[in-house]
Design the sequence.
């Protein structure tokens, strides 16, 4: 199986009414060398300045980002290139990240290479340590910068730690 750790940045809480501004993806393997980074032009006039500020970009900058259809097509091609079989989506907050990636794939390419499901890294960790109040974020090595590739890489490092040090049975 190919696990793809994903992180997105947006300018609001939901896709369609608001826009995914950027996202990063990492093929989860020991080297973490296969990454994807996309910056997407807004699809809506709506945006929440505080949400956009998290990405580190201004509205004016985002208006010069790439066409979302091209970015999503490029992402699908990258997935096909780096995955030996069906990619599996995993993220820190899959409820948020998944809805944007899924919506953008279906809206701009007509298909989602990930299918219809995703995994949540935080929930996986809570289950492994049997404590709903624990957090995996101390397992990251790469700093959480809100650059989506950095954040996806840090989360992939945490997943690899669960495999190598906690005994998670996962086929990468």
Sequence:
């Amino acid at each position: 199986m190919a696990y793809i750790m994903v992180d997105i940045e947006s300018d609001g809480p939901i896709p369609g009414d608001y826009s995914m501004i950027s996202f990063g993806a990492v093929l989860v393997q020991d080297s973490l060398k296969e990454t994807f980074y996309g910056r997407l032009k807004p699809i809506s006039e709506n945006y929440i300045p505080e949400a956009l500020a998290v990405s580190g970009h201004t509205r004016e900058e985002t208006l010069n980002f790439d066409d979302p259809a091209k970015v999503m097509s490029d992402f699908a091609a990258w997935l096909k290139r780096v995955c030996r079989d069906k990619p599996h989506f995993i993220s820190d907050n899959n409820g948020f990240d998944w809805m944007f990636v899924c919506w953008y794939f279906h809206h701009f390419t007509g298909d989602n290479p990930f299918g219809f499901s995703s995994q949540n890294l935080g929930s996986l960790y809570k289950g492994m340590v049997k404590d709903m109040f624990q957090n995996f974020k101390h397992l990251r090595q790469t700093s959480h910068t809100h650059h989506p590739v950095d954040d996806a890489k840090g989360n992939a490092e945490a997943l690899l730690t669960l495999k190598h040090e906690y005994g998670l049975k996962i086929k990468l």
